[in-house]
Amino acid sequence: MRILFITSSRLGDAVISSGVIERIRLAHPEARLTVACGAASAGVFASLPGLERLIVFEKQSLDRHWFSLWAEVVRHWWHLIVDFRGSALSLLLPAGRRVIVRGGRRPGRRYVQIGVALGFDPAPLPVAWTAPEDRARAAILLPEGGTVLGLGPTANWDGKIWPAERFGDLARRLGVPRIAIFGGPGSDERARAAPVLAALPDAIDLVGAVSVPEAAACLARCALFVGNDSGLMHLAAAAGTPTLGLFGRSRASEYAPAGVRASFVAAPGPEGEAPMDGLAVDQVVATARALLGTTVPA
Fold first, then answer.
1. How far apart (Å, rounded) are the C-alpha atoms in residues 131 and 210?
2. Residue-wise pLDDT tens digits, 178-187
3. What distance in Å separates the CA atoms of residue 229 and residue 252, rounded to the nearest whole number?
4. What distance in Å separates the CA atoms of residue 128 and residue 98, rounded to the nearest whole number?
5. pLDDT digit string (tens) for 217-274?
6. How far is 146 from 208, CA to CA, in rounded Å?
7. Tell me, what's the pLDDT at 106?
8. Where are the domains of the chain?
9. Architecture of domain 132-292
10. Which of its termini does the chain have fewer beta carbons within 10 Å around, N or C?
11. Bigger pLDDT: 65 vs 22
12. Count of alpha carbons within 13 Å of 88, Cβ hemisphere only?
């Protein structure tokens, strides 16, 4: 049995789709899985059990990327195709069943929209796949011995980023013994994380230092993750880490972190329009303490 998943080029959207992929995988343990996605999200699926092939495709002019992907997958008969990109590609492929997941058609959480489209009620929560070597690397980077607070001070655009100095204030007020700062690869991520790294010089710097599954394994070792609306925020929640997402110029009603212990705080104002500097440290600290479930110094 062959199953093809066509999923996002964005890390966060790929993580959000992981719950239904896992549910389908568990229902068909003998299936050979192919995932087609963008380079930024490929790491989400690197440790997916049953993965036969990972196809990385990037946007090309005149939508030529769709033709390139079609050429890669048309030679097989697919028992099931799930297209999270909402494209018409699956209509041009030999398949027993096709599910095309459209975006923005229903109100509510994105992971629920996807679950409903696949017929799951309740919708499965996202998951994070890791291999033994990912977990071994995480044990070296974040060894046992003291609670770890994970911070995610970056995002894909500046309007989603909480002021850097407030991350420092938050960390000091929570009083957690160890702090790990997460961020993606590249100079932009490094530049956005730099002020927080400077404010917390004793923190463990994991910005651009780990792969996606290694990051998931590291996040699973944190007692709490606090971060801007980003792919890392979704990955933390999927890893089962208590996760607090910070929202301002993005929609928490659709993209709040989805996990067994996940919450969010939003800057005051219209959803998706409120500036992040309106989000007070006190509000974040109060919710973070509740997620930690312990009494920490004020």
1. 14
2. 999 999 999 9
3. 9
4. 25
5. 999 999 999 999 999 999 999 999 999 999 999 999 999 999 999 999 999 999 989 9
6. 23
7. 64
8. 2-117, 132-292
9. 3-Layer(aba) Sandwich (3.40)
10. C
11. 22
12. 2
User: Could you confirm whether domain 2-117 is CATH 3.90.1170.40?
Assistant: no
* Residue 145, helix vs strand vs coil: coil
CA angle in degrees (0–180, nearest 5) for 184-187-188 = 70
The label of the residue with tokens 């050429």 reads: 71
CA atoms within 13 A of residue 262's CA, in its CB half-sphere? 22
Q: Is the pTM of this model over 0.90?
A: yes
C-alpha distance from residue 218 to each of 14, 47, 213 (Å): 19, 15, 9
Provide the token pair at 231: 């792919």
Summarised one tens digit per residue, pLDDT across range 242-256 is 999 999 999 999 999
How far apart CA 250 and CA 164 sit, in angstroms, is 18
CB-neighbour burial class of residue 122 (10 A; exposed 0-12, middle 13-18, buried 19+): exposed
For residues 46 and 130, give the distance between their C-alpha atoms in angstroms, rounded to a whole number. 8
Question: Which residue type, as a one-letter code, is found at position 62?
Answer: L
Alpha carbons 33 and 73: distance in angstroms, whole number: 12
Do 246 and 229 touch, CB atoms closer than 8 A? Answer: yes
**Domains 2-117 and 132-292 agree in fold:** yes
Model confidence at 298, in pLDDT bands (50, 70, 90)? very low
The answer to whether the beta carbons of residues 189 and 207 sit under 8 Å apart is: yes
